[in-house]
Design goal:
The protein has about 160 residues and is of the alpha/beta class. It has 6 helices and 5 strands, in the order βαβααβαβααβ. Helix 1 links the parallel strand 1 and strand 2.
């Protein structure tokens, strides 16, 4: 297969900063380099799950601090992918969204016409995993766009 036989123009990368999402980003950037596609990395701040944390609404400043932390984390994850894309010579754009991660990814894919979604199977552990949840299954089940799911790296 050559470049003209693969009709990918826009690839969406679901980013959460985890090792698995970075592996997915590396794969997506590689596909983008091969096909000439634009890669768009998306980080979604899950404000609905954030609101379910104990003390979220009652502790002054907690909401703002957590939101600031999540936006900072998202920006750092997207910068890492931007560096990866730039080093590979791949066109890149970034999006930080708020809402349910699965819903936001699906909505983004409907609107601007992405050709492929690339995401990891499991995000971060601990608090971040609670906030992100299992997005891969939702996206795979409801996407009208092909989805490439990158598994967790095997332990050696």
């Amino acid at each position: 297969m050559n470049r003209s036989e693969i009709m990918l123009k826009k690839i969406l990368i679901a980013a959460d900063g985890s090792e698995t999402s970075m592996r997915a980003a590396k794969m997506a950037v590689g596909i983008g380099k091969t096909t000439g596609a634009l890669v768009t990395a998306v980080y979604v701040v899950d404000v609905q799950r954030l609101a379910q944390l104990p003390g979220y609404a009652s502790m002054p400043g907690l909401k703002d601090n957590l939101m600031e932390l999540m936006f900072k984390e998202g920006g750092e994850a997207l910068e890492e992918i931007e560096d990866m894309a730039r080093d590979a010579g791949v066109a890149y754009e970034r999006v930080i969204a708020e809402g349910d991660p699965g819903e936001e990814l699906l909505k983004l894919c409907r609107d601007p016409g992405f050709d492929l979604i690339v995401l990891g199977t499991i995000g971060k552990s601990g608090l971040a995993r609670f906030l992100i949840g299992s997005v891969a299954e939702k996206v795979v089940r409801h996407s009208h766009v092909p989805v490439l799911v990158v598994p967790v790296k095997d332990k050696e």
